[in-house]
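[Meeting: bench + compute handoff]

Bench side (C.D.) handed over the final construct sequence. Compute side (W.E.) agreed to return the predicted structure before the next meeting so the bench team could plan truncations. Sequence as handed over:
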Amino acid sequence: MTHPTATESEPTICFHPIGVVENEFDQPAPGDAIRAAESLIRLKPALAPGLDGLKPGERLLVLFHFHRSQGFQLHQHPRGDRSRPRRGVFALRSPFRPNAIGASVVEIIAIDNNLLRVRGLDAIDGTPVLDLKPV
């Protein structure tokens, strides 16, 4: 069963992307394949000073919006594999969540002004980045 994302009695929460993901994956793909590849996070240029203090080799938590995801189910088969028993959405990395927010811990490969090259990001090309936090 698909559920709505909000009711009239709940406040609206609005986020503004701080950047966007760039990589070779323009369609959803197995998470292991995406995480093994390098991705570029292109921050808005005005936010580049916010990267001060980060260094290659460090780990970073990337929060992003599953921009192609619509609706959610509270119980899903892991990775859509019907041979596996259903689990609760909060026990899965599924993009079909009550709030379409994704999170990946990445390794910083390089930093060049507002460009952050990382490995371990589970997001496709064009994904809006919401925030970055040290791990």
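W.E. noted at the follow-up: Residues 36 and 82 are 25 Å apart (CA to CA). C.D. will use this when planning the next construct.
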